[in-house]
C-alpha cells in the first residue's frame, strides 16, 4: 500500500517548486501551482501571465483555490512511521496520528479521537480561540515592552559609557599634565645644578689657561735671556722670578654632580605629590560651638580651639561634650570622599579623627573603633593609633599638620603628615564599617596647667590652582 501513497505524492507536486502543493491555485488553462509560485510569476501590463506547462496566456490577477486538490493533499498526508493516512488525533499527546499508531504504535492506550470530530469541536470552541488570541496579543505586548525596555537600557548604557569614557580621558589628561609639570621640575633642577657646576669648572679652566699662557711667555723670555746684556738680563730675570713667587699654584679639585634629589626616589616623590593633588579639595570646615566642652574656647570664626582655664556656664544641650575636652566640626558625612587638615603645631597632647554622630557625649569618650571612634593622637612624645590594642606610630619627624581622608563608601579613614605643601606622607589607615553620619573630631585634651594650652586649628583651604 505504501507505494501507492508514494506514487500519489509524486503526482501532487508543484511543477515550479517541485514540493507538495501548498495552497494550490488553478489557472484558466487548468494547471495548478502553489500560491507563492503563482505570485512569483511575471505578469505583463494587462495582468496576463504564461503558464509554465502549456505556455498559454491566462489571467494572473486572482486565480481561484483548487479546493479538490487541496483536500486530496490534506487527505494524502501520511504517517512517517506506518505510511498510513493521518486520520486520528491523540488527545494525550495533542498530535495527529494514523490508525496503526493508535492501535499498536506509540499511542496505544491513549485517548484517541477522529480528526473530523476534533476539527468540528475546535471550530465550535470560538471562546477558546478568542482566549488564545487575547493571550497571544498580551504576550506580544509584553515582548514588545521588553524589547522597548532593552532598547532603552542599551541606549542608557551607551550614554553612560560615553560619559564615563569622557571622565576617564579627563582624569588621565589631568594626571598627564601633573606628570608633565613634575617632569619639567625635575629636569629644570637637573639643568640648573649642572649649569652651576659647569660654569664653575669653566671659570677654573679659563684661569688655568691664563696661568698656562703666562708660563709659556716666561719660558720664552728665559730662552732669550742668554743673548741679553747684563742690565736687561737682570731686569727680565728679576721680574719673572718675582711673578713666579707671587703666583701660587691652584690645585684642581673634582666636583661631584648633586642635583638635590636621589634618582631612586623620583617615583616615590612624585607619587606623594600626586597623592595630594588627586585627593578631594580640602573641606571648608568650622567648629560647632554647640558641641564644644564648656572649658573649650573657640576663636577666629570658629576655626581655632584651645582649652581655657575656667569652666564656662553653657547650655547642657544633647550635642555638647561634658566629660571629654572635645569639639566636632559643623559638618558631618554619610557618603562620598572627603579630606580636611588640622594644624597641631607644637601641642604636646591631642587626638584627631572621626566619631559616629550617635556616640554619647555625656560620659568619657571611649576611643576605639568598636565604640564608633577612630582617632590618632600624641601623648608623652608618643604617637598612637587608638585601636584595640593601641598601635604606636613610628614617625620619622614630629607632626605639625595632619591630613585626614575619609572614603565613606570605600570604608577607609586615612591619616597623613601634610606638613609639606607638595606631598603627603602616610601615617595610618582605619578600616571603617559604619552606617549613618560621622563627624570630624578634635580632642584638645586638658590644658595641663598651661603646658598643653596650644590650640588646634582648622586651616583655611588653599585657593584652587588655575588650570594650565
TrEMBL record:
MF GO annotations: zinc ion binding
Keywords: Coiled coil, Metal-binding, Zinc, Zinc-finger
Coiled coil keyword on record: yes
Domain B box-type: 74-115
Lineage top rank: taxon: Eukaryota
Coiled coil regions in record: 198-228
Name of this chain's protein: E3 ubiquitin-protein ligase TRIM50-like
Amino acid at each position: 500500500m505504501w507505494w501507492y501513497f508514494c506514487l500519489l505524492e509524486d503526482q501532487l507536486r508543484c511543477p515550479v517548486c517541485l514540493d507538495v502543493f501548498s495552497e494550490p491555485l488553478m489557472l484558466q488553462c487548468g494547471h495548478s501551482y502553489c500560491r507563492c509560485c503563482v505570485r512569483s510569476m511575471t505578469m505583463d501590463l494587462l495582468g496576463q501571465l504564461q503558464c509554465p506547462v502549456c505556455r498559454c496566456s491566462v489571467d494572473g490577477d486572482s486565480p481561484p483555490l483548487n479546493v479538490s486538490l487541496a483536500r486530496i493533499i490534506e487527505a494524502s498526508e501520511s504517517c512517517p512511521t506506518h505510511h498510513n493516512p493521518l486520520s486520528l488525533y491523540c488527545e494525550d499527546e495533542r498530535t495527529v496520528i494514523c490508525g496503526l499508531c493508535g492501535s499498536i504504535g506509540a499511542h496505544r492506550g491513549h485517548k484517541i479521537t477522529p480528526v473530523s470530530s476534533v476539527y468540528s469541536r475546535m471550530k465550535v470552541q470560538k471562546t477558546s480561540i478568542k482566549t488564545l488570541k487575547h493571550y497571544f496579543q498580551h504576550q506580544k505586548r509584553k515582548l514588545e515592552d521588553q524589547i522597548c525596555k532593552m532598547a532603552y537600557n542599551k541606549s542608557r548604557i551607551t550614554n553612560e559609557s560615553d560619559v564615563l569614557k569622557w571622565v576617564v580621558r579627563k582624569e588621565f589628561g589631568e594626571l598627564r599634565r601633573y606628570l608633565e609639570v613634575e617632569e619639567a621640575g625635575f629636569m629644570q633642577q637637573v639643568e640648573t645644578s649642572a649649569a652651576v657646576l659647569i660654569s664653575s669648572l669653566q671659570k677654573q679652566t679659563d684661569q688655568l689657561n691664563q696661568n698656562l699662557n703666562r708660563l709659556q711667555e716666561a719660558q720664552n723670555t728665559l730662552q732669550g735671556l742668554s743673548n741679553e746684556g747684563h742690565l736687561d738680563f737682570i731686569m727680565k730675570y728679576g721680574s719673572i722670578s718675582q711673578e713666579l713667587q707671587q703666583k701660587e699654584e691652584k690645585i684642581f679639585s673634582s666636583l661631584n654632580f648633586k642635583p638635590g634629589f636621589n634618582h631612586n626616589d623620583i617615583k616615590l616623590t612624585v607619587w606623594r605629590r600626586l597623592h595630594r593633588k588627586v585627593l578631594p579639595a580640602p573641606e571648608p570646615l568650622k567648629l560647632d560651638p554647640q558641641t564644644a566642652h564648656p572649658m573649650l574656647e573657640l576663636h577666629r570664626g570658629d576655626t581655632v580651639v584651645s582649652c581655657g582655664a575656667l569652666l564656662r556656664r553653657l547650655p547642657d544641650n544633647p550635642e555638647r561634650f561634658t566629660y571629654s575636652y572635645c569639639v566636632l566640626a559643623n559638618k558631618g558625612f554619610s557618603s562620598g570622599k572627603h579630606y580636611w587638615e588640622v594644624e597641631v603645631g607644637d601641642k604636646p597632647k591631642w587626638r584627631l579623627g572621626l566619631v559616629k554622630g550617635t556616640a554619647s557625649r555625656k560620659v568619657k569618650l571611649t576611643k576605639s573603633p568598636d565604640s564608633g571612634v577612630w582617632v590618632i593622637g600624641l601623648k608623652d612624645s608618643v604617637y598612637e593609633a587608638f585601636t584595640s590594642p593601641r598601635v604606636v606610630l613610628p614617625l620619622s619627624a614630629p607632626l605639625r599638620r595632619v591630613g585626614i581622608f575619609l572614603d565613606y563608601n570605600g570604608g577607609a579613614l586615612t591619616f597623613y603628615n601634610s606638613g609639606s605643601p607638595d606631598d603627603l606622607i602616610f601615617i595610618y589607615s582605619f578600616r571603617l564599617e559604619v552606617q549613618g553620619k560621622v563627624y570630624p573630631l578634635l580632642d584638645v585634651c586638658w590644658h595641663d596647667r598651661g603646658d598643653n594650652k596650644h590650640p588646634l586649628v582648622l586651616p583655611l583651604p588653599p585657593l584652587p590652582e588655575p588650570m594650565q
